[in-house]
Amino acid sequence: MHTKKVVFIFMISYVLAFKMQAQYDKTNPNYKECFVGSTFAMLGNLLPTEKPDFIQLNIGYRITEKDVISIEFKTWKYYRSLGIPYGKEFTAPEEKFPGHIKEKGFAIVYQRFFWKGLYTGVHVMSAWQSFINEEGNKIDDGFQVFNTYRLGYHFKLFKKAFFIEPSIAITHRAYHTTMPDSFRVLDNGRSKFFFGEPGLHFGYNF
Fold it and tell me: At 94, is the secondary structure helix, strand, or coil?
């Protein structure tokens, strides 16, 4: 249900923005090299249950018209293995951890633009974890390297002052430390990759 809503928002945003300009010209005197932004994924904090408490801040710099680097600071929590694919298991009660995992960290991001606003991006995140049981007590700490490989389109809004970036991604748990047994038993055998994660970033150029 929640996944369908996210995909719907992604598709509507893409259609509405399709006719907008999506090019930057570095020779333009109004060219903006820097930006700050975040993601509409934070709307998930409005969910009635299993709120992710998601917070993200992006700060970026346009090296060239085609090459962009940025850093993402983020924190969130999740209640199931990140390797569960879309389908019946995705929200199955029996797949829920006995508590949740709280993460905080930062990602280094590189974007490469190919045609107008079409881009690919690689996000490499270092994430520090806290394993919280059902009573709200921390039972262990952990660490993971969480990568995201993204394909998206950059649309400028309001005279190029703002932008949105609908995208689709593959996420990759490249490395993580051993989970507590009560969490590990629900993560064992799950893929380290997740395919088809929608994204909708936004930002302000300056």
Answer: helix
